[in-house]
Amino acid sequence: MSALQGVFSIAGRIVEPVIQLVVLHGGFVFQYKKKQKKLEVEIKNLEEQRKQIEEKVDEAITQGEEVDERVSNWLAEVKERLQRIKDDNTINENMQCFKFSCPDYILRYRMSKEAENKMEEVKYLIQSGNFSTVKNYANFESRELVFNSIMVALQDSDVKMIGVHGTGGVGKTTMVEEIGKQVKNGLFDEVVMAVVSQDANVSNIQGQLADRLSLKLKGETEVGKANELWNRLNNGKKNLIILDDMWQELNLKTIGIPITDGNNCCKVVITSRIRGVLEKMHVDRYVPMQVLSEKEAWVLFKTKVGNSVDSPELHDIANAVCKECGGLPVAILAVGAALKGKEKYVWENVLVQFKDSMLKNIAGIDTKVYISLKSSYDQLESSDAKSCFLLCCYFHEDANISIEVLARHCIARRARTPGKQPLWRKVIVEKDEGDLPLSSPLTRMRWQKYGIGTVRVKIGSHN
Prior knowledge:
Elements: H1 2-30, H2 32-62, H3 69-97, H4 105-128, H5 141-154, E1 161-165, H6 172-183, E2 190-197, H7 202-212, H8 222-233, E3 239-246, H9 252-255, E4 266-272, H10 275-280, E5 285-288, H11 294-305, H12 315-324, H13 329-339, H14 344-356, H15 367-378, H16 383-392, E6 400-402, H17 403-415, H18 423-431, E7 446-448, E8 454-456
Parallel strand pairs: 1-4, 1-5, 2-3, 3-4
Antiparallel strand pairs: 6-8, 7-8
Helix pairs in contact: 1-4, 2-3, 2-4, 3-4, 7-8, 11-13, 12-14, 13-15, 17-18
């Protein structure tokens, strides 16, 4: 009896995996439609993810930013693999049409097996495409050092205020924006940013913070609003407040930011062109941001202009123009965009402008930044583009300019200039397309999804 039980036991161990294999592979035969539908769902998810990333890439390129190589490679890989998967599915569907008379179990098995393998492939692409940003910020050693310094300070429990300082156009805003994206839903529960600017209007700063916190301020005075913000931010969560472009000392308590001894709910990152302002604010950690090295500047310049700068005709003059930009990213990107595809004589004219400029002092802005932006403006071929930019400069820095208000100014201007095509028509028609008739990085104009729509001049052109 025991021998018979042993035989059954051995037989059971042999038969059990065989049965499991039969069930597994049988499932491929009878569930092929279900697996095909699951694959279609995953493909739609991947296509939606690709669309969102492509939109972010387009925005980054419009703003003159460098796109991370990993993102570009991922988009290319997704495009190639998706096309192959769709082509395979089309072939399988055509084969099914010829097999309608009776079920082809071998074909069903193969299609089901392929669907499962493709589903795993698509899921892998979705997972590998979870980029926190599409922009390449830590591409240069100098920027990576700054980035890491800020991140270390944010993780230090003894540090509550961090000051990032450097000349205008060096990339402070870009850096802290990227920091905010990296730490949100990680080190911090909420990350909010407000632009302070030269006027340091407390009510305006409170409004910016409240909007980003989805908080409706009911107080009528700055004190009342400060109390509401204080209570909102002192909620037990970890909050990061970024105050960009500070020009003078500002009492954070008057805004409503809870920075007090023993209160660990908030950390503040401040950017300023003036270290003295940060000293008056008594920040806990100073992070200087220097210009790019010559090598880094040339890499960025070449990325913006293209390989034409390596030609024997342009190499020397392009190198000279790049050096005149002084290692400032904003100058390099503006000049690079303006000179891309231009003839040698245009390069020579820009170089002469740099060398012969009599401009020495502009409060708060590097001379090289001014010259580079002026050169970018001069290279705009459309008079409408120049007019639109200059109209925006009538508004204060970082203002959200209503499209309706901008159109009124355009109408008024054209009314005084008979015989010219109405610029306001371009503004109205192109509003829905998300672009102005002005694409130069000089202006960094961005459409905001607020009501009728607004445009913002980011670069400090008002200087």
